[in-house]
Structures are given as structure tokens and as C-alpha cells.
Specification:
Radius of gyration: 27 Å
Number of strands: 0
Strand content: under 5%
Structural class: mainly alpha
Length: about 120
């Protein structure tokens, strides 16, 4: 489960989330210092420790979700590729990608006749 994790995008997303979280903490402490955490020098180290812990937690979560997402996409592409080829062969149609030289089904010949 934990091998083949893609850490680079996970660290980027985690950094963005932690930066947003720190920004919101700062904005809320400035906007409403009485009802929210007032930033004092004694609280800054604990805030930094929390930010580091959240960073690694978010990085792990994002790495696992990215791996699962890529696995699902690969499975869907494999199923989609097999099913579309099978349907085209059973219907007697030309498989996708080999439409070179055939007429475009998206054009209307009636409209072209009316303009003439």
C-alpha cells in the first residue's frame, strides 16, 4: 500500500494547504483577537510545530489519494479500451482511430445543399 507513492505533488499540495491554514490563523487572530487565538510570542513555537505535523499528515494523505486515483484511472482506461474494441468488432464498425478516408458524421449534407 505504501510503495510507489508519488511524494512530489503531495508535498506541494500539503505546503499549499498548510500555508492557507497559517494564513487563516493569522487573519482570524488579527480580525478577532478576543474571540480567536491571539498571536503572542509564546504561541508561535506551538503553531509552527502544529504546522509541521499537519504538513506531513497532509502529504501522506495526498500521496495515498493520488496513488489510488491513478490506479482507478488505469483500471477505467483498461476497461474502456477493451469494451470499446469489443463493441466495435461485434457491431461490424470500424475501430476508433481508423476513420481516415471516411466521411465525417458530424457534418450535415442537407445544410450544404440549402446554402447552394
Amino acid at each position: 500500500m505504501f510503495k510507489d507513492l508519488n511524494w512530489a505533488p503531495a508535498f506541494k499540495r500539503a505546503a499549499i494547504f498548510v500555508a492557507i491554514w497559517l494564513g487563516l490563523v493569522y487573519v482570524m487572530s488579527v480580525a478577532a483577537p478576543d474571540s480567536f487565538l491571539a498571536m503572542t510570542r509564546e504561541q508561535v513555537p506551538s503553531l509552527i510545530i502544529n504546522a509541521i505535523m499537519f504538513f506531513f499528515l497532509f502529504a501522506f494523505i495526498f500521496a495515498v489519494t493520488e496513488k489510488r486515483r491513478t490506479q482507478r484511472v488505469e483500471q477505467l482506461n483498461a476497461q474502456k479500451g477493451k469494451s470499446s474494441k469489443r463493441q466495435a468488432e461485434t457491431n461490424g464498425e470500424v475501430p476508433e482511430g481508423t476513420l481516415k478516408g471516411q466521411r465525417n458524421p458530424n457534418t450535415s449534407r442537407k445544410k450544404a445543399r440549402r446554402k447552394r
